[in-house]
Please model this.
Amino acid sequence: MDLYVFATPYRIGWDYYTRAHQHTFEIKSWEEAGEMEYVKLHGVAIFLMPSGMLGTLLSLIDVIPLFSNTIWGQDANLAFLKKHMGASFEKRSQPWASNIRKEDVHSGDFLALSKIRGRWGGFQTLEKWVTGAFAGHTAVCLKDENGTLWVAESGYENKKGEEVIAIVPWDEWWGVALKDDSNPQVALLPLHPDVRARFNESAAWEFARSMYGKPYGYHNMIFSWIDTMSENYPPPLDANLVMAAMSMWTRLQPRYASNMWNEALNKRLGTEVVIINYPAIHFTSYWNRGLRN
Model:
């Protein structure tokens, strides 16, 4: 049984066939005039899923539970990481939340976070898989001249709903972590005493303040996964299918999609292209303008 995916920047459809024969996939109506014009110029992208119908369904069964904010979802994330990365997690004894004394934390100490349930837990699990990382988010601790403890991190949502680089008081940051119903795993990793002695606290503060309020580093995010022509895609993905999915996502969530890859491509090509319509055409334009070099 062969599974085929049919994609344009406006839709992704699929069908399966059990025997060799002439088959027809019907597009009954265009999403809008732009889709018809796109198909006239570029046609419809067709993908044969190498895992077949059964393999693809099993893959979906493997992935969908990752985004459930339940014990079932948590178990699914742990099983996925063990199966695909060989990663194992040891269950801690109670209490699961430690009381960290602020006086024991120093500038330069590192925070590694890992969510293993819920929407962001599922996303972080897939991110770990494709990048080889074992943490889904990181932050660094800084103490000011008054001994007040702060956390510097990227991805903090401000009052406008923008994700920016922020410097947050420890009590506020730790309180949010404790209330997070996605059950984040937080590891405090102190600097080695020899390294701490060399840590330039004033330079760290100067850099953190210079970055304060700037946008989250979306321009690096996708390239932490995709940094080769064709070797970063776990089956059944490939570069062409990912490009079709990116084009579709651009239409469904244009602001988030723009952050994810428009910003990244503009950064690397020195351009200021805004993708609104026909995203696949523009992506091809990006590619021809030097991305592959």
